[in-house]
Amino acid sequence: MADNIMSTWKDSFALDGKPAKWTYDMGVILKGIEGLWLSSGDTKYFNYIQKQVDFFLKDDGTIKTYKQDEYNLDNINNGRLLLLLYRVTLKEKYLKGANLLREQLRSHPRTSEGGFWHKKIYPYQMWLDGLYMAEPFYAEYAATFREDAAFDDIAKQFILAERHTRDDKTGLLYHGWDESRKQRWSDPTTGRSPNFWGRAMGWYAMALVDTLDYFPKAHPKRVELIAILRRLATAVAKYQDQKAGLWYQVVDKAEGKGNYFESSAAAMFVYALAKGAHMKYLPASSLRVAEKAYRAMLSQFVETKPDGLVDFKGTVSVAGLGGNPYRDGSYEYYLSEKVVTNDPKGYGAFIMAAAEMEPAKKKKKG
Q1: Which among 218, 223, 353, 206 has a CA at the least distance from the CA of 292?
Q2: For position 217, which CATH number holds?
Q3: What is the pLDDT of residues 29-63, one digit of tens each?
Q4: How many Å separate Cα 326 from the centre of its chain?
Q5: Integer Cα distance of 101 and 289 in angstroms
Q6: 210 noted as active-site residue
Q7: What is the total count of domains within the chain?
Q8: Catalytic choice (129, 178, 252, 343)
Q9: Per-residue pLDDT tens for 183-209?
Q10: What is the extent of the structural domain holding 352?
């Protein structure tokens, strides 16, 4: 699958026929490639990561197409690659680029309780997606440069997101929350969006296990973050289709008209559950849930072509809230978005899941 990716996007991640931009899609793919590099030790994977990042990064650390004043959490995700490249090469430009993204978080707009807005254009809103986009980078940066006080803030983001999106009955997390209650999609009482979108919870689960890699073991909030992960893992396991081994696009509506098994959410859940179990945050039962889903993905979503390259099917291209045209968060909305093959988000999440599930991961050759 990585060979297919490196063949499709040789020089940069130009998507949908548009010029390449500094987007989180690239980061999801390249974190998958990083997992392959770590497990295989094959230099071609590291070189590919560096080439893709260098397309955007100038020697002075500025990033082509990135605008800090947009205050978009999506643009932070690729900072993890800058930290990787800095650690390996010690080239100053990677550190400067990472510092630029860290500066965005220092002035990023927040809710009254201190939660990051998802984007400046989405005021007073926290989306589950945003936790993956910002917190693993924030934690890795803080650990690398000894910003110990930052971990209080990092923990706060996860705690606030769960507090405002978790449904007590199901244990599932709603896609977004609007503190201002001004959005048409927000419940006037709770501020929550109306549905449980699979990939949104996948982002949040992956964010937790990746952030915990860098979260100090002695920090008092670490136990709380692991408890959040366990609550979410329990809910996710409950809504896994027992026959198919997968999850629906709108997770709790198995009988809903037009609902379908969505591949990127499955990949993200597999990665988070398997890594959580391997790291002892989660019980062994979570690994069994992941193994069942992994087998199902290989059967239903992975397709080897005659040339030996591998496709990944069944990924919803996008889902959001608000904007123009307006996305109301309804069940019908989530079912209306296009389902595609070889979407970067699905691709990257699957490779991360595969690297976590396959035995080569344990050898740590890299």
Answers
A1: 353
A2: 1.50.10.10
A3: 999 999 999 988 999 999 999 999 999 999 999 99
A4: 23
A5: 36
A6: no
A7: 1
A8: 129
A9: 999 999 999 999 999 999 999 999 999
A10: 109-359
